[in-house]
Automatic annotation (TrEMBL):
Essential cofactor(s): FMN
The entry's keywords: Cell membrane, Flavoprotein, FMN, Membrane, Oxidoreductase, Pyrimidine biosynthesis
Organism, scientific name: Flavobacterium suncheonense GH29-5 = DSM 17707
Pathway this chain belongs to: Pyrimidine metabolism; UMP biosynthesis via de novo pathway; orotate from (S)-dihydroorotate (quinone route): step 1/1
Name of protein: Dihydroorotate dehydrogenase (quinone)
Amino acid sequence: MYKQLIRPLLFCFDPEAVHHFTFSAVRLANKIPGFSSLFKSLYEVNDKRLEREVFGLKFKNPVGLAAGFDKDAKLYQELSNFGFGFIEIGTLTPKAQGGNPKQRLFRLREDSAIINRMGFNNGGVDEAVKRLKKNKGVLIGGNIGKNKVTPNEEAVKDYEKCFNALFDYVDYFVVNVSSPNTPNLRALQDKEPLTQLLQTLQNLNNAKSSPKPILLKIAPDLTDEQLLDIIDIVKETKIAGVIATNTTISREGLKSINRIEAGGLSGKPLTKRSTEVIRFLSEKSNKAFPIIGVGGIHSAEDALEKLEAGASLVQLYTGFIYEGPALIKAINKKILEKA
C-alpha cells in the first residue's frame, strides 16, 4: 500500500515539507484510540530470537532508525510502533540552529537516493531533553555534534555539553564528526583531534557511576589507512563501537539530475561501500568492537549482507522513506528465517 499509493502522492511535494507533514500525520494517527496498536500489529515482529545484547544493552530486535529522521526527539515514541528495535535521535547541538538555507533536501528517484545538506538543524539539546523525559520504554541513542559557529578548536566543549545534558535520558551516545554539511566538521576525523575528543568524552563517561556506551559515526569516504586509524582510536580510547556509515560526498554512477546538488548522499548508491567499510573494520580489527551498519538498506537482503559482513545491528533512513515501514518487518522476518 505504501509504495503503490502513499509514496507516489508524497513524492509529488517538496521533501522537507513532506517530512514535516508525515510527522504531523503519524503523531495524529497515534492519538486516535487503537491506532498505535494497529501499527504494532502490522509491523512489529516479536520473537526472542531477534533479541540482541550489544555493548551491554538489550535490543528487542536489531533494526533501528538512524539519526537525522527524528532530530529533535519529537516522534520517537510513535516511530517505535513501526517495529524498530531502537531509535537514534539527533544530531543535537548545544544551541538551537536553523541549519543551511532551503532548499536543502533532494530526492534522486532514478537512483533511489537522497541528497541532504540540512546542516544539523535542531532546536538544541535542552529542548530535546524535555521530550526525552517522557520516554516510555523506547531504547534511545543520542547523536551529538557541534554548532556551526563553534570553531574546531573549541568543538570538544560542544560535545561535552550535549553529553552531559543527555546522559540521563539516552541509552547510548553517537559522536558525529562525519557529516559533510557542517563546514570543516570532517577535519575532526583526523587521528589526533578525534582521539582527543573521544578520550575527553570517555573520561567524562568513566566518572559516572554507570557509564553509557559511546560510538563513533564515520564517513564512507575514508581510505583504508584512515579506517585503520579508526581501529587504533577505538582501541586506545576504549569506546564501545562504530556506526558505519554516514552519507557520502561521492557522486559516482548517479543518473538523476539532482546529482549536482551539494550535500551528503544516502540510499542505494551507498549500499556497497557501507558494507565494504563494515567488512574492513570487522576483519582488520578481528571483530574487536560492535558495528552498527547503516547505508543503502532497501531490502531484507541488504540488511543481511551488512550483518554477515560484521554488523551487530543495522539502521534505516533512506530505505525507510523509499520502501516504507514494511521494510522493518521484512528484515526481522528474514533474520528469523536464517536463525
